[in-house]
Specification:
Bound molecules: calcium ion
Helix content: under 10%
Distance between the termini: 62 Å
Number of helices: 1
Radius of gyration: 18 Å
Number of domains: 1
Length: 228
């Protein structure tokens, strides 16, 4: 078993966080309309507890800075009619048994915290569904699991927010890596006619896993506000 010192040293080598301040498009060109966020295999989304180490780079969730949950957007465009939208998550819980393949980190309080994922309506506040993935549970560890599926009609925007929850220990400092996917974002079978369901990161951070020189490529979409 690795000592805590070894653990921290290993993680400092393999992980690099990049905060997103802009709406970022990460649409995957995977078969059958699958849309995965993020699309590169050695990169995870990573939501950190509000008291996680500041130097790990998650401005959005830190209690003295953004102090907000990570936020993702699902855009259902016009032309989608009563389509069953299924969202799945990879490794949504905070629990790690292999520091070289799993980006989850327990950090200094040595307690695994729970992670809450909520589906919000277009107003970003009405909660349509939520589930809590228990910290320290192997049920979803390093595997895809269903989050939720529901019927959608466009145009309509949905949101997902992800938050580490403080448990009995009060401190919440885990760093939870995961992925999100829309199982099939191509409601009409035509992948190029502009009505594909999209999955986007609005507030998030990334964790890059691997050794040596690491890189990640992504595209950003800037929304120009209309002049009055
Ligand atoms: Ca895990
Ligand atoms: Ca913890
Ligand atoms: Ca995880
Ligand atoms: Ca289509």
């Amino acid at each position: 078993m690795k000592t805590e010192k070894q653990y921290r040293k290993s993680k400092s080598i393999v992980s690099l966080l990049l905060c997103l301040a802009l709406l970022t498009i990460l649409v995957n060109a995977a078969p059958a309309g699958e849309v995965v966020l993020p699309r590169q295999s050695n990169v995870y989304l990573q939501t950190n507890g509000s008291q996680s180490p500041e130097q790990d780079g998650d401005w959005w969730t830190h209690e003295t800075h953004g102090n907000q949950p990570h936020l993702y957007q699902i855009i259902v465009p016009s032309g989608v009619n009563n389509f069953n939208l299924a969202v799945e998550m990879f490794d949504p819980e905070s629990y790690c048994t292999d520091i070289y393949t799993d980006p989850d980190e327990q950090k200094a309080n040595l307690v695994w915290e729970d992670t809450r994922v909520r589906l919000l309506d277009s107003d970003r506040s009405t909660v349509l569904y939520e589930t809590v993935y228990p910290g320290g549970s192997s049920a979803s560890n390093l595997k895809w699991v269903s989050f939720y599926s529901w019927n959608v009609t466009g145009p309509h925007n949905y949101y997902l927010d992800v938050t580490l929850l403080a448990g009995a220990a009060a401190t919440v400092d885990d760093e939870n890596g995961y992925r999100i996917r829309v199982v099939d974002g191509n409601a009409d079978g035509n992948a190029t006619n502009g009505n594909e369901i999209g999955l986007y990161a609005i507030r998030s951070a990334f964790s890059m896993m691997g050794t040596g020189d690491l890189s990640y490529t992504f595209a950003s979409m800037y929304r120009r506000s209309r002049r009055p």
